[in-house]
Design goal:
This protein is α+β, with helices and mostly antiparallel strands and about 270 residues long. It has two domains: about 55-160, Uridine Diphospho-n-acetylenolpyruvylglucosamine Reductase, domain 3; about 165-265, Enolase-like, domain 1 (2-Layer Sandwich), CATH 3.30.390.50. It has helices at about 10-20, 35-40, 75-80, 85-90, 95-100, 105, 115-120, 140-145, 215-220, 230-235, 250-265, and strands at about 5-10, 25, 45-50, 60, 65-70, 125-130, 135-140, 155-160, 170-175, 180-190, 200-205, 210. The strands form three sheets. It has a five-stranded antiparallel sheet. It has a four-stranded antiparallel sheet with strand order 9-10-11-12, sandwiched between helices.
């Protein structure tokens, strides 16, 4: 089946084109989309591209930073204001992938990909769509209805400004280092002292990145010591149904999640 490609200079025009194409996909970096096309994915009939510079911008907005959806992992690593996200971007594939893979594309990545989105979820990020005039959608809500948002163009992702890179902790659990697909990823944002206000997110433990709400509640007010995090580790997978796939079983994911969460919270190997 032939694929129609449209290129627009304005993000508003691109958004209209994508919304009117029932078989359309937006082209960001193409690291996953081109694989689907090469595998003859029959659900894709139209590709919409956009060259609007707004997609490549990183700008300050008060106490938050707006990261354009077209910003690549390599650009994240090179941006001083985004130093707290550089370790996460660094584990996304190899140099060739990082030079193409975009923040917006990662939002739609299916397991075993989407590690960067896991970190964004821990950071309480929000998503801004083209034409929303400053309004944004919490990332958690976006992920809950992600399948129905492919017809909209993401303009940027909003994250809090973090001056201490150690406040965001991240681990990618893989059998093939350093570039293997993750069987699990864990991100923890520790904005306060101890576990106060801690946010924990898992990747590849559900169809989309997901919060570890029970572990967060158990950690509230606790110290980041072995004794203080004990209840959080017991609740590490409470309320979750990890998948069984070619990378790991549900049982294995439940067994290793507390181990890696413990190391992350104690800052071991960070």
């Amino acid at each position: 089946m032939p694929v129609h490609v449209e290129t627009h200079a304005n993000i508003s025009d691109a958004a209209r084109a994508l919304s009117s194409a029932r078989d359309g996909r937006f082209f960001g970096g193409g690291t996953l989309l081109m694989r689907a096309l090469n595998e003859a994915d029959q659900s894709i009939g139209t590709i919409v591209r956009c060259t609007d510079p707004v997609l490549r911008q990183v700008r300050s907005e008060g106490d938050r930073i707006a990261i354009g959806a077209g910003v690549t992992m390599a650009e994240i690593m090179a941006n001083r204001d985004l130093a707290f996200l550089a370790p996460v971007a660094r584990i996304i594939g190899g140099p060739a992938v990082r030079s193409a893979a975009t923040v917006g594309g990662n939002l739609f990545a299916e397991p075993p990909y989407g590690d960067f989105t896991t970190a964004l979820l821990a950071l309480d990020a929000s998503v801004r769509f083209a034409g929303e005039s400053g309004q944004s959608t919490p990332l958690q809500d976006f992920l809950r209805d992600r399948a129905n948002r492919r017809g909209r163009v993401v303009e940027s992702v909003m994250v809090p400004r973090i001056t201490d890179p150690k406040a965001l902790r991240f681990v990618k659990v893989t059998r093939v280092k350093p570039k293997g697909a993750a069987l699990m990823s864990i991100a923890a944002w520790l904005p306060g002292s101890g576990g106060r206000g801690c946010r924990i997110a898992y990747g590849n433990m559900a169809p989309t990145p997901v919060r570890a709400a029970a572990a967060e509640r158990a950690l509230e007010g606790a110290s980041l010591s072995e004794q203080g995090i004990a209840r959080a580790l017991q609740a590490a997978t409470e309320g979750l149904t990890p998948p069984t796939d070619m990378f790991a079983s549900e049982w294995y994911r439940r067994e290793v999640a507390p181990v890696h969460l413990k190391r992350l919270l104690l800052g071991q190997g960070q």
